[in-house]
Amino acid sequence: MGVLNVTPDSFSDGGKWASTDAAIAHALALTGEGADLIDVGGESTRPGAGRVSPAEEQSRIIPVITELARQGLRISVDTLNSGTAAAAAAAGASVINDVSGGLADPVMASVAADSGLTYVAMHWRGHARKMDALARYGDVVADVRAELSARVEALTEAGVLRGNIVLDPGLGFSKLPEHNWQLLAHLTSFADLGLPVMVGASRKRFLAGALPADVGLSERDLPTAVVSVLAAQAGAWAVRVHDVAATRTALNVLALVDSATMEL
Ligand code: PMM
User: Which ranges form a coiled coil (predicted)?
Assistant: First the structure.
């Protein structure tokens, strides 16, 4: 899944794809690099970010989604807002990616149910302004797993088909660096819930732990690609990345090793 942030302020690529034309060109480039799905977002969720009105969010992303869907790309909409999810579904999106797992907007679950689309429920404890203060866990893997299971219950009660739900442990959202590493180390515990799992590590702060001090954000693309391989080995359904080419190459290596293993 290639990231397309149509925002002026996302943490790693804010402002780069803020115009409709630049956004469309970037989505086509990511597809050329091997993305199977483009995740289009119009509201930054970086720690400390403020909210954007649904009208502003939709004016940023709906023209982009409409054109990309017209060109046959598979689109996911990254939104907390049910009205934006419904508008994106009408514009041709095929996945709703809700980083709050339905907690931010009480109408989201019924919109997801009515749309019949794949719905990504990410682990979330609160909005960007306060999420760092909510990074307290007994056992982060057990706690995130239990909180995601509770979301699956609530979503299915609201009519979302279990078979349409994808789970995401929400790396970087109310998580300290050690929480992110523990979640990555135990990704198969999430796969054990019997639903597809996606992972969004791309360029996040915790990856700095794998790099020399004071290197730039783009240096995080290499550790991101390594995480993509680890996620794939744990059976992930998708990895959400900014640098699609690096992840595609890393996954090609894994596929070649896997096929050589089967040849024996
Ligand atoms: N991370 C971000 C945004 N959307 N969606 C899912 N499902 N999982 C994530 O980890 C995730 C997400 C934040 O990253 P960005 O600011 O680079 O878009």
Answer: none
